[in-house]
Specification:
Elements (H helix, E strand, L loop, with lengths): L1 E3 L8 E6 L3 E6 L8 E8 L3 E13 L3 E9 L1 H12 L2 H9 L5 E5 L3
Parallel strand pairs: 1-7
Antiparallel strand pairs: 2-3, 3-6, 4-5, 4-7, 5-6
Helix pairs in contact: 1-2
């Protein structure tokens, strides 16, 4: 879910691509270039992954690209696992983080 700061409800989001440097998300949330965000989720075997970044690109009002400026070790471990996994394994790893929330500060 993508939740804009100050709003109670959010919009569904799909992580299209993720790396230690950033990610690409599909969502119907309206996000502006320059918006700051925080991505947090739990990964197997129980690591609390966290990344902070800034929106650097918006395409077709449905996708936005993020550059991470700060990530924790659990996040780096998760990304390493995704990179090393087979396509089927990637699906399992990504599916395991369903329910995560991306908080966005709407003010660039």
């Amino acid at each position: 879910m993508v939740v804009l700061r100050g709003e109670q409800s959010g919009a569904r989001a799909f992580i299209r691509d993720i790396s230690k440097g950033g990610c690409l998300l599909d969502t119907e949330a309206k996000v502006a270039v320059g918006s700051r965000l925080s991505l947090a989720f739990l990964s197997k075997p129980g690591g609390h992954c966290h990344a902070v970044g800034c929106v650097v690109r918006v395409a077709d009002n449905r996708q936005f690209g993020v550059h991470f400026s700060k990530v924790n070790m659990a996040f780096l471990g998760f990304v390493g696992s995704v990179s090393a996994a087979s396509p089927e394994g990637r699906v399992e790893l990504i599916a395991a983080i369903r329910g995560s929330t991306i908080e966005i500060d709407a003010d660039p």
